[in-house]
From TrEMBL:
InterPro entries: Cytidylate_kin, Cytidylate_kinase_dom, P-loop_NTPase
Domain Cytidylate kinase span(s) in chain numbering: 7-219
Alphabetical keyword list: ATP-binding, Cytoplasm, Kinase, Nucleotide-binding, Transferase
UniProt name for this protein: Cytidylate kinase
CDD domains assigned: CMPK (cd02020)
Major place of residence: cytoplasm
Sample GO molecular function, one term: kinase activity
Amino acid sequence: SEVPVLTIDGPSGSGKGTISRMVARRLGWHYLDSGALYRAVGVAAAWGDLDLGDAGALVRCTFDTAIDFREDASGELRVLVNGNDATDELRTETAGAVASAIAAMPEVRTALMDRQRAFRQPPGLVTDGRDMGTVIFPDAPFKVFLTASAGERAERRYKQLKDKGVSVTLDGLLREILARDARDANRAVAPLRPAGDAVHIDTTGIGIDEVVERVLNVVGA
Ligand code: C5P
């Protein structure tokens, strides 16, 4: 495809989501949050009371679940699962853990492939996830791998959740982040790893605006 893609992969809490949305806006490109697709399938499976060990049922659920992204009046991205606004439910640690569990199943990953590639539309696509640069868009002309120390990622998440009034401990979050990192990095299919041609950016101690500028530099914008 001639349509340019910028892939931004990295572990949870590296700032991928925030950075990707800001960069997409600056470039005027489309944006795909691939993690939201895994989270949405997990939430739909939970709504349907599906057995998370049943790959066949999960694949059917993946094909049957309508997932739509929509910007609300304040410019916030909302995710509709089968027509219901599931944005808040998708952000919970439980939804993240379920997503990470079903994302380890090759059948589920394959079932989501075409759906992700369909977001590649003119004038361009910014997408974030774990395997955007390695598996889904290996031919992307622009690839970034974002990292940050686990401590800093836990702190960012802690602040986000506290602002939302969710009660969590920094310690508990750090443990969850490390567990999810290990699962995402060690799974057999599409493990979290940088593409050979990705530009690495460590965001520890760097402000969001500075990271956005560095990513825009990769695209030459
Ligand atoms: O990025 P986010 O935290 O929303 O992703 C939730 C989970 O979905 C991750 O922990 C990961 O297991 C899975 N995922 C994935 N591949 C992607 C995006 C997310 O396996 N491209």
